[in-house]
Amino acid sequence: MATWSIAPLHIEDLDEFVQCQFLAFVGNPLHDVVYPTQPASAEKHRKAINEGSKLQADNEIIYLKAVDIRSGNIVGGIKCCYYVGEDVLTSSPYAAGITDVEAKATDNDQYCCYVVNEFLGKRASDIKGQHARKFIAKDRKHGWIIDILFVHPEYSRRGIGRELVARTCSMADRRGLKAIVEASPAGKRTYELCGYQSKEVVTIPPKQWTDKPVQLYYWMEREPLRQVRR
Ligand SMILES: CC(C)(COP(=O)(O)OP(=O)(O)OC[C@H]1O[C@@H](n2cnc3c(N)ncnc32)[C@H](O)[C@@H]1OP(=O)(O)O)[C@@H](O)C(=O)NCCC(=O)NCCS
């Protein structure tokens, strides 16, 4: 019997959610760049949740947590975004990341800025607007993206990651939406088990920052189980 359960995240869970997120992502170079510190990341999520609640009913930022039933502790989490229209990529959850980094001037900040811009620039050119290369819905206006997925290292390989992704897959299926994710090497298998297919291996070279790694992730897509007519 499962010793964990999944539930929607409450705003008061945010610090614990981020603490677990950081534990799970130790050693992931892209996470270090996109989410530089725990307090800044918690703030970013808080802003996303607050902004999310102000969005139209069709636009949602969905956070789920996995909880150890015995201890009550958060042991995993997922964040995904559903949006209508083009606003998602210019609204605060994304743009905030870039602005935060650009405002600072150290060499490392400049590197972070470069990586975040490459990462989000690719996302924008691939899925945003009428000229998007890899639009999600047939009408090119609806998007479904998993933004964060993590499981506490002590709870890994128990099926928690897979269940978190599966929950969001059913949400996308209900809306007939194609879903995308920029998967880490560690996450790729979990997504494959939920029906995502890798379409592209993306690398971000270190350019002049020769002490930095090549950033690598998989652009993955999942077709909905049923199509909804729009
Ligand atoms: C990726 C992650 C969420 C998987 O969570 P999990 O609860 O361990 O995953 P599951 O138990 O549902 O396992 C799903 C599959 O992934 C595999 N898997 C789990 N961790 C893995 C890892 N580190 N490397 C490769 N495969 C892994 C499992 O073997 C399982 O496949 P199997 O059933 O065929 O054996 C977790 O390892 C994690 O938080 N990693 C660090 C953060 C990260 O990279 N997140 C993904 C961002 S896109």
TrEMBL record:
Domain N-acetyltransferase positions: 67-223
InterPro entries in UniProt: Acyl_CoA_acyltransferase (IPR016181), GNAT_dom (IPR000182), Trichothecene_AcTrans (IPR052523)
Single annotated GO MF: acyltransferase activity, transferring groups other than amino-acyl groups
Classification via PANTHER family: GNAT FAMILY ACETYLTRANSFERASE, N-ACETYLTRANSFERASE DOMAIN-CONTAINING PROTEIN
Protein name, entry field: N-acetyltransferase domain-containing protein
Naturally occurring in which organism (per UniProt): Extremus antarcticus
Phylogenetic classification of the source organism: Eukaryota, Fungi, Dikarya, Ascomycota, Pezizomycotina
